[in-house]
Prior knowledge:
- The chain is mainly α.
- The protein has one domain.
- Helices cover 77% and strands 0% of the residues.
- The relative contact order is 0.05.
Amino acid sequence: MAFNKIFNGEEQKRIKHLIEEGVRVKAEVEILSGGLRDTVKAIAEEMDMKPADLNRAITVAFKDSFADEYEKIDALETILDTAGANTSKD
């Protein structure tokens, strides 16, 4: 099914403005993401950590989802204990 809508002058202006603003915002997000990526990498190297661990912590904090993450780990631990495959206990 083809998209055959004809936009009037005001709609064309609104779409053009939206696209321009959307491109600007996405470019800013890309720049900020790159800076965060560089910062995470530098701190991870300084602290002898994996950048992925720091990124995961940032994501969990941003989403305020620690309880969800804990439940996932708890379920995983239960499954591995049940299978007798959890050999990394302290």
